[in-house]
Amino acid sequence: MARTGQTFIPDDDVEDFREGFARLRDDFDVPGEHPDEVKAAAEVAAARPFDVVQPGEPAGQWQHVDRTDVEFLTLDPATSTDLDQAFAIEMAGDDVVLHYAIADVGWFVRHGDPIDREAWRRGVTVYLPDGRAGLHPERIAEDAGSLLPGGPKPAVVFTVRVAGDGSVRLDGVERAMVRNRAKLAYSTVTPADLPDAFPELSRRIEENERRRGSDRIQWPEQEVVRRPGGGFELRFRPRNDAENQNAAMSLATNMAVADALLEAETGLFRTMPGVDERRLGRLRHTARAFGLDWPKAMSLGEFERSLPRGEPRTSAFLLAVRRAGGGASYTPYAEIEGDKPWHAAVAATYVHATAPLRRLADRYVIEATLAIANGRAVPDEVEQAFSELPEAMRRGDSRANRVDRAAIDLAEAIVLQDQVGEVFEAVITDEDDRGVRIQIREPAVVARTTARRVDPGDEIQVKLVAADPVSRSIDFERVG
Is the residue at 279 inside a domain? Predict the structure, then answer.
């Protein structure tokens, strides 16, 4: 399947909408192929020889320790080829020890080279239904730098200790050569494929989240599928246990790295305010639209964890939470206000360090952590980048989010285009000077319409009067 951030469209149907995807790329100035200069630099970087030392020997900044004897695995969507993360897990007394190997993008991309300059222009990888606009050239992101099975690959290995109460501590960082023993897929993995301590690590992290009052949401994904009788339908694919457990490893590592950087008084932190009262009110109306009982005294995080898994209405509500969120940003240590940087959804100090093939900022966070963990000064170019990255990441994330939203708009228009004239049940979730925001119950679509003498929470009926995949728009009017 071709992927966007939240929407999947079967490959057989992608060609039908190629023109729409091309228009979407043009509308949002999505980068195309990497320039020839960048691809040539990637070839040179991919051929750069490694200086490998044995465990126990002192290692310099650009040397890699031989860790090919460690049983690393990857766990991703079946079709993924840009593999950022591999893991090995063991018990050490009461601690779960996570060895988290992250693609060593810093080995291939050096400060000021053509790959680096282009990455700064892009910021992040942008996913669309018919492909992706990669942060880095394919030679690095899907080949030399990806932690695919086969020959040894360069990585930065974070060793994280997870205590019995779920607290985390960074216990070491090193450049290493690793070997991925198996590329596991979310759709087919079984408990027998995974380390024995894999579920225990996840359980500890989740228990600690509950104690912190974290509202971190495990997002569902949408699929657009052709109906047997013609037309399309929009449905949700809930995340399975393996995906949720896999996310715990990244969370644990990013929190442990954040604590280490904060103690060293450097770094780039991911910060986010809490969901404001207006958005919470809108989400409560949305929950009502899906027939979900949200007690007034229950927090958003507690409510999310109480919802039945695998039900379409749960997935629809979680997608609404994603749309209601916002305000996450990158903050350099020098600009921290208060005692510590804070990410409200995680309810902790937090960084992005585990997806450098897809996010520019992660490479710099990794390089800073490597330095402080090994008693070296953070390179000047890394410290300078921390003050410049927030704007570069804002631009990249903004484009990716707008493309993601537009892809969903396109999918909704495709799904609904053969239902023009039909009447749908809806609940008003919000009202402002642009009209009222409505949540359609089935299919789960958010839209705006005009309605007088109504309040948020009111149930109304609306008729679909237009659905245009070309403009990626749908139009409802109130009836009755």
Answer: no
